[in-house]
Amino acid sequence: MNLAEVFGYVASALVLATFTMRTMIPLRLLGIASNIAFIAYGYADDILPVLLLHTILLPLNIYRLAEMYRLVREVRNAEAGDNDMRWLLPFMTPVSLPAGATLFAMGEAADHMYLLTKGRIRIEELDVEVNSGAMLGEIGVFSPHGTRMATATCIDECRLQRISRDKVRELVFQDPRIAFNLIGVVTGRLIEDLRIAEARADRPEPRPAQ
Protein backbone atom coordinates (compact mmCIF):
# COMPACT_ATOMS: atom_id res chain seq x y z
CA MET A 1 0.00 0.00 0.00
CA ASN A 2 1.50 3.30 -1.05
CA LEU A 3 1.11 6.72 0.60
CA ALA A 4 -1.65 7.83 -1.79
CA GLU A 5 -3.78 4.81 -0.85
CA VAL A 6 -3.29 5.57 2.84
CA PHE A 7 -4.59 9.11 2.29
CA GLY A 8 -7.51 7.69 0.30
CA TYR A 9 -8.54 5.23 3.02
CA VAL A 10 -8.21 7.88 5.75
CA ALA A 11 -10.29 10.34 3.73
CA SER A 12 -12.96 7.70 3.08
CA ALA A 13 -13.10 6.80 6.78
CA LEU A 14 -13.53 10.45 7.72
CA VAL A 15 -16.38 10.87 5.24
CA LEU A 16 -18.04 7.76 6.68
CA ALA A 17 -17.64 9.20 10.18
CA THR A 18 -19.48 12.39 9.18
CA PHE A 19 -22.67 10.34 8.75
CA THR A 20 -22.57 9.40 12.44
CA MET A 21 -22.52 13.02 13.61
CA ARG A 22 -25.72 14.43 15.08
CA THR A 23 -24.61 18.05 15.43
CA MET A 24 -23.16 20.49 12.93
CA ILE A 25 -19.85 21.50 14.53
CA PRO A 26 -18.38 17.97 14.78
CA LEU A 27 -19.71 17.27 11.27
CA ARG A 28 -17.92 20.34 9.87
CA LEU A 29 -14.71 19.45 11.70
CA LEU A 30 -14.74 15.96 10.23
CA GLY A 31 -15.60 17.43 6.83
CA ILE A 32 -12.55 19.70 6.99
CA ALA A 33 -10.33 16.77 7.99
CA SER A 34 -11.68 14.67 5.12
CA ASN A 35 -11.13 17.56 2.67
CA ILE A 36 -7.49 17.79 3.72
CA ALA A 37 -7.05 14.01 3.40
CA PHE A 38 -8.68 13.97 -0.05
CA ILE A 39 -6.51 16.90 -1.20
CA ALA A 40 -3.43 14.92 -0.13
CA TYR A 41 -4.81 11.81 -1.86
CA GLY A 42 -5.60 13.68 -5.07
CA TYR A 43 -2.17 15.34 -5.10
CA ALA A 44 -0.24 12.17 -4.27
CA ASP A 45 -2.02 10.06 -6.89
CA ASP A 46 -2.41 12.89 -9.42
CA ILE A 47 -6.23 12.68 -9.45
CA LEU A 48 -7.16 16.20 -10.56
CA PRO A 49 -10.99 16.06 -10.15
CA VAL A 50 -10.67 14.93 -6.51
CA LEU A 51 -8.00 17.55 -5.85
CA LEU A 52 -10.08 20.37 -7.37
CA LEU A 53 -13.33 19.31 -5.66
CA HIS A 54 -11.88 19.22 -2.16
CA THR A 55 -9.80 22.33 -2.69
CA ILE A 56 -13.15 24.09 -3.27
CA LEU A 57 -14.96 22.30 -0.43
CA LEU A 58 -12.28 22.99 2.19
CA PRO A 59 -12.75 26.80 2.44
CA LEU A 60 -16.52 26.33 2.24
CA ASN A 61 -16.48 23.96 5.23
CA ILE A 62 -14.16 26.33 7.14
CA TYR A 63 -16.54 29.23 6.44
CA ARG A 64 -19.58 27.24 7.60
CA LEU A 65 -17.74 26.16 10.75
CA ALA A 66 -16.88 29.79 11.52
CA GLU A 67 -20.56 30.66 11.04
CA MET A 68 -21.58 27.98 13.55
CA TYR A 69 -19.08 29.20 16.15
CA ARG A 70 -20.29 32.77 15.62
CA LEU A 71 -23.92 31.67 16.05
CA VAL A 72 -23.09 29.80 19.26
CA ARG A 73 -21.35 32.92 20.59
CA GLU A 74 -24.30 35.14 19.68
CA VAL A 75 -26.75 32.76 21.33
CA ARG A 76 -24.67 32.84 24.52
CA ASN A 77 -24.64 36.64 24.39
CA ALA A 78 -28.42 36.68 23.90
CA GLU A 79 -28.85 34.28 26.81
CA ALA A 80 -26.76 36.52 29.07
CA GLY A 81 -28.21 39.80 27.78
CA ASP A 82 -30.89 42.11 29.14
CA ASN A 83 -33.64 40.78 26.83
CA ASP A 84 -34.26 44.20 25.29
CA MET A 85 -36.94 43.51 22.67
CA ARG A 86 -36.58 46.71 20.67
CA TRP A 87 -34.82 44.73 17.94
CA LEU A 88 -38.30 43.41 17.04
CA LEU A 89 -39.45 46.88 15.95
CA PRO A 90 -38.60 46.42 12.22
CA PHE A 91 -41.06 43.49 12.14
CA MET A 92 -43.87 45.29 14.02
CA THR A 93 -46.75 47.55 13.03
CA PRO A 94 -48.01 50.54 15.08
CA VAL A 95 -51.27 50.52 17.04
CA SER A 96 -52.93 53.39 18.95
CA LEU A 97 -55.64 52.93 21.57
CA PRO A 98 -57.59 55.49 23.64
CA ALA A 99 -57.66 55.52 27.44
CA GLY A 100 -60.02 52.84 28.75
CA ALA A 101 -59.71 50.60 25.68
CA THR A 102 -59.12 46.88 26.17
CA LEU A 103 -55.97 45.69 24.46
CA PHE A 104 -56.91 42.05 24.98
CA ALA A 105 -59.18 40.08 27.30
CA MET A 106 -58.57 36.90 29.25
CA GLY A 107 -59.56 33.81 27.24
CA GLU A 108 -59.23 35.47 23.83
CA ALA A 109 -57.05 33.98 21.13
CA ALA A 110 -53.48 35.24 21.52
CA ASP A 111 -52.78 36.18 17.91
CA HIS A 112 -50.36 39.09 18.59
CA MET A 113 -47.85 40.29 21.12
CA TYR A 114 -47.16 43.95 21.80
CA LEU A 115 -44.43 46.41 22.76
CA LEU A 116 -45.77 49.42 24.67
CA THR A 117 -44.04 52.58 23.44
CA LYS A 118 -46.19 55.23 25.16
CA GLY A 119 -48.73 55.25 27.97
CA ARG A 120 -49.66 52.88 30.79
CA ILE A 121 -51.60 49.62 30.75
CA ARG A 122 -53.20 47.78 33.66
CA ILE A 123 -53.17 43.99 33.89
CA GLU A 124 -56.53 43.58 35.56
CA GLU A 125 -56.21 40.15 37.16
CA LEU A 126 -52.86 41.06 38.75
CA ASP A 127 -53.81 44.68 39.49
CA VAL A 128 -50.47 45.92 38.20
CA GLU A 129 -49.49 48.70 35.81
CA VAL A 130 -46.94 48.35 33.02
CA ASN A 131 -45.16 51.31 31.46
CA SER A 132 -43.45 52.24 28.23
CA GLY A 133 -40.93 49.63 27.09
CA ALA A 134 -42.88 46.64 28.42
CA MET A 135 -43.71 43.60 26.31
CA LEU A 136 -47.32 42.42 26.53
CA GLY A 137 -49.08 39.24 25.41
CA GLU A 138 -45.97 37.10 25.01
CA ILE A 139 -47.14 34.42 27.45
CA GLY A 140 -50.40 33.87 25.56
CA VAL A 141 -48.57 33.67 22.22
CA PHE A 142 -46.44 30.80 23.52
CA SER A 143 -49.01 29.12 25.77
CA PRO A 144 -50.14 25.61 24.73
CA HIS A 145 -53.70 26.73 24.05
CA GLY A 146 -52.75 30.09 22.51
CA THR A 147 -55.14 32.10 24.69
CA ARG A 148 -54.79 35.22 26.83
CA MET A 149 -53.99 34.62 30.49
CA ALA A 150 -55.21 38.06 31.65
CA THR A 151 -56.99 41.25 30.55
CA ALA A 152 -54.98 44.35 29.60
CA THR A 153 -56.66 47.78 29.72
CA CYS A 154 -55.23 51.14 28.68
CA ILE A 155 -54.98 53.60 31.56
CA ASP A 156 -53.86 56.41 29.27
CA GLU A 157 -53.91 56.88 25.53
CA CYS A 158 -51.44 54.21 24.44
CA ARG A 159 -49.19 53.67 21.49
CA LEU A 160 -47.93 50.18 20.83
CA GLN A 161 -46.12 48.11 18.25
CA ARG A 162 -47.52 44.68 17.52
CA ILE A 163 -46.30 41.52 15.83
CA SER A 164 -48.38 38.50 14.85
CA ARG A 165 -47.99 35.10 16.44
CA ASP A 166 -47.13 33.56 13.07
CA LYS A 167 -44.40 36.14 12.43
CA VAL A 168 -42.89 35.57 15.87
CA ARG A 169 -42.72 31.83 15.25
CA GLU A 170 -41.19 32.40 11.83
CA LEU A 171 -38.47 34.57 13.38
CA VAL A 172 -37.81 32.01 16.11
CA PHE A 173 -37.30 29.26 13.52
CA GLN A 174 -34.96 31.49 11.50
CA ASP A 175 -32.73 32.69 14.33
CA PRO A 176 -32.16 30.94 17.70
CA ARG A 177 -30.98 34.25 19.21
CA ILE A 178 -34.59 35.41 19.02
CA ALA A 179 -35.74 32.26 20.78
CA PHE A 180 -33.29 32.86 23.65
CA ASN A 181 -34.41 36.49 24.00
CA LEU A 182 -38.07 35.50 24.06
CA ILE A 183 -37.42 32.71 26.58
CA GLY A 184 -35.83 35.35 28.81
CA VAL A 185 -38.81 37.71 28.41
CA VAL A 186 -41.43 35.01 29.09
CA THR A 187 -39.48 33.59 32.05
CA GLY A 188 -39.01 37.07 33.51
CA ARG A 189 -42.73 37.79 33.22
CA LEU A 190 -43.67 34.49 34.89
CA ILE A 191 -41.23 35.14 37.75
CA GLU A 192 -42.64 38.65 38.22
CA ASP A 193 -46.22 37.31 38.22
CA LEU A 194 -45.23 34.70 40.80
CA ARG A 195 -43.62 37.40 42.96
CA ILE A 196 -46.81 39.47 42.82
CA ALA A 197 -48.95 36.45 43.71
CA GLU A 198 -46.71 35.62 46.69
CA ALA A 199 -46.83 39.23 47.90
CA ARG A 200 -50.62 39.14 47.78
CA ALA A 201 -50.72 35.85 49.65
CA ASP A 202 -48.57 37.36 52.43
CA ARG A 203 -50.76 40.46 52.67
CA PRO A 204 -53.12 40.25 55.70
CA GLU A 205 -56.83 40.03 54.95
CA PRO A 206 -58.77 43.21 55.91
CA ARG A 207 -60.84 42.64 59.02
CA PRO A 208 -64.58 43.36 58.81
CA ALA A 209 -65.79 46.41 60.71
CA GLN A 210 -67.01 45.67 64.21
Automatic annotation (TrEMBL):
GO cellular component, one term: cytosol
Record-annotated Cyclic nucleotide-binding domain positions: 88-172
PROSITE patterns: CNMP_BINDING_3
Membrane-spanning segments: 6-22, 50-66, 87-107
Keywords: Membrane, Transmembrane, Transmembrane helix
UniProt-recorded Gene Ontology molecular function terms: DNA-binding transcription factor activity
Source superkingdom: Bacteria
Record's keyword annotation contains Cell inner membrane: no
PANTHER family the UniProt entry points to: CRP FAMILY TRANSCRIPTIONAL REGULATORY PROTEIN (PTHR24567), DNA-BINDING TRANSCRIPTIONAL DUAL REGULATOR CRP (PTHR24567:SF68)
Protein name listed in UniProt: Cyclic nucleotide-binding domain-containing protein
